[in-house]
Amino acid sequence: MKQNELQNFNPFAMHSPSHPTPARLSVLPVAALLALSLSACAAGPGEPKPQQSAAPVTHNCKPQETVGFSCELRDHRLLSLCGSPGFEKFKGLPKDNPGYAYLAVGTQKGEVQYSYPPNPSDYKKHFFKGVPTNGIPYMFVASEKGRFFFLTEQDDTNPQGAGYLAPENFPDGWDIKQKDPTPPCLRTLHFENFSKLGLTHATVWFSEQDRLDAEKTRTKKP
After folding, report:
1. Signal sequence span per UniProt (predicted)?
2. Do the Cβ atoms of 195 and 152 come closer than 8 Å?
3. Domain segments of the chain as ranges
4. What is the pTM of this model?
């Protein structure tokens, strides 16, 4: 370089003021360095990445529980029969099973909206199972008003399981509206433990209903 060029040469002119080099930082006063640090902090981190939505679930039971069955209702919510861990492995009589069971209705994101009974340990008063002459197992759940959910096991003619919903007998607070209640399930998601769950036999419920009907008949007589 010529003498006059050396006098006018600025070693920082080739760098952007917003991106000083280490050499320039070494000659900056402390106040300037502090200002640069505060400016960088104020800029903050980059834009946060959008969170991915939760993957759809196939039942609304807890991870450690037994899934008796689960299906997608016609309004796209899930209906699941959930049992205590190891429920399906109990070898004794159903009435002696110390476990619990409940029916759960919720979204495909795992949000449970309704469950029955309020105390899952009381399932023996509300859940019943039977095998008719055609040999296809069925189960139903009854509230204090009567049977509100009925489902048979899958077979060749009913791959989703035949059954129905009875809204007039739903537990208080339940709101499931389906234009066609038969069958209740749009598609079946779990069915492997349906026949293994030792729920109370249906004859217990029918015998009790017969007793109550006979009692009502007696009270109506003069």
Report:
1. 1-42
2. no
3. 3-43, 66-210
4. 0.68
